[in-house]
Design a protein that fits this description.
It is a single chain. The protein has about 130 residues and is of the alpha/beta class. The protein folds into two domains: about 60 residues, 2,3-Dihydroxybiphenyl 1,2-Dioxygenase, domain 1; about 55 residues, Signal recognition particle alu RNA binding heterodimer, srp9/1, CATH 3.30.720. The strands form two sheets. A four-stranded mixed β-sheet has the order 1-4-3-2, with helices on one face.
Length: about 130
């Protein structure tokens, strides 16, 4: 049996704020919050109950150090009900910013979340 991808942990300065941003991006909800430890976990609304694969949860943990270099691992998102440019506009309105990581004329758009973590908005919709 192989391992399953169930969770992505993200270090940050403001777990509640960053979790709120990613909830809006992914249409997720907070599933666990421990203010004492500074950890917030988000996932699909309704606990991810579905007949298909369950998407991973994202866990945001408060750390004292800030981000200093380009991420070596990042999230790609695909618009599910609009075109790429409309989704980029929506994400910018939520607090994302454009980023240049040397992507040139690629078909994806690189943005950063409010804490500077890079992520890509793909042009092609994926299930």
């Amino acid at each position: 049996m192989a391992a399953k991808f169930t969770e992505l942990a993200i270090d940050c300065a403001d777990p509640t704020g960053l979790a709120g941003f990613w909830c809006a991006v992914l249409d997720y909800a907070v599933v666990r919050e421990d203010r004492g430890d500074g950890v917030v976990t988000i996932g699909p609304p309704g606990g991810g109950e579905s007949t298909g694969p369950v998407p991973p949860v994202l866990t945001f943990a408060r750390v004292p150090e800030g981000k200093s270099v380009k991420n070596r691992l990042h999230i790609d998102v695909s618009p599910s009900d609009r075109e790429q440019d409309e989704e980029v506009g929506r994400l910018l309105d939520l607090g994302a910013r454009h980023a240049d990581v040397g992507q040139g004329g690629a078909s994806w758009v690189v943005l950063t979340d409010p804490e500077g973590n890079e992520f890509c908005v793909l042009a092609t919709r994926r299930p």
